Amino acid sequence: MTSSPESPAAVDAPSSRRWWTLAVVALAQLMVVLDATVVNIALPSAQADLGFSDADRQWVVTAYSLAFGSLLLLGGRLGDLVGRKRMFLIGLVGFALASALGGAAPTFGVLIAARALQGVFGAMLAPTALAVLTTTFTVPKERARAFGVFGALAGAGGAIGLLLGGVLTESLDWRWNLYINDVIAVVAVVGAMFLVPNVRRTGPRPRLDVPGTLLVSAGLFSLVFGFSNAESDGWDSPASWGFLAAAGVLLIAFVVWQTRASHPLLPLAILRDRNRAAAYASVVIAGAGMFGVFLFVTYYVQSTLGYSPIQTGVAFLPMIGMLVLAAQLGTNLLVPRFGPKVMVPIGMVLATTAMVLFTRLDVHSAYAPDLLLPLLLMGAGMGSIMPASMQTATLGVDRQYAGVAGALVNTSQQVGGSISTALLNTLAATALTDYLASHAPVTAAVGAEAAVHGYATAYWWCAAFFAGGAILAAVVFRRRDQGLGLHTATSTAGAPAEDRVPVGA
Known about the structure:
Layout (H helix, E strand, L loop, with lengths): L7 H5 L5 H33 L3 H29 L1 H20 L4 H29 L3 H32 L4 H20 L14 H24 L4 H21 L10 H4 L1 H31 L4 H7 L1 H22 L1 H19 L8 H27 L8 H36 L6 H33 L29
């Protein structure tokens, strides 16, 4: 008997492909996340090839983070407005074309333009990928499993990027760190065309909040630029504090406008839920701490221990394996039983312990157990924090706002990473300078010890971030019986009932 269009079989038919949809979405997310680190390994080779200065080198990273961080909320909202499958495909194709342009760049200027374009299309792709996942998996147990995979990639993507960057740079050419995105994108585009559902809108199309978009985009741009500039020019630079002050004014103005806008870009009710607010704060802290690990542990193993790029990537593999294992155990067994109020603080404590152990590293440390043990603890910690936080951050959000809720997750991680990179670099550099000043005369051995001392200072600050995160998560998250698991019981955005429908998935 053939099912009618209104029958349950007909309605649920697309969901039979939901695990393939997860594979496509996870592949796209991996491409965006690893691109934040895969290029770092290639920077020395790219600099030698294109002839740009040390001062200009940071713009290869900054151009991407500026565009990506400032446009994430807009990208998430566009997915809600024009259709998530359409925006997902636009993001994939655009990211691939920008990567091809960067890989073939004949000059430094073209490379920077390509990196900025990668950020633009990444800002369309990342929140849309999370929104597709949010609206595809609605059964709690399956949703937990899907977010376990997605959260593991979000946490491990940076380490995977280090390994892949080392292999591509040593085996092929630095340009393949950009070309590899085209290989991934081709597979993802083909998969998305056939596997990502295209749900038709049944309600009226909402309008884009143009003033809100301009305010938040300019505010996030100023925030990321201010911290990035502080890393290179110092905190006393007018550009640093000027842009940071402008960011504060613009973001406050954005919040005020959202209380008055008839079609707000970010309905503030999304942030009024305690669990969601705690989840976004946890992602900020996790992003800040993880950037510290990737940045300073990479410096340490390459500069102090003399690891090659490939060896550096391989050194992070145990952390990735532990992160994936913890993410799957957490989301499938532990979070459903104990809730984020228990699991996220445990993850923060594990990460704090890892950071304290990193401070014990010296110029003579061995990989096992000196470096291996804290890497494993960090993997277990991030596997407990990220999937639970990402799942909770999008739990119960009306489908028409799934894109902007997903964008907030990515924005939180990006802002945390940007702030920590600038802050930790400055603190580490200051500690290194003070160590050299108090240990004259400066020899090669003293210089190596000074560098390790600078890294240890950064690790202590990261430990403080995670310890504060543990307290915040334990206090702010509600108990499991106070709301965890309510997927559609309440409208978190205050939309009328007729608007609570899938839109352009």
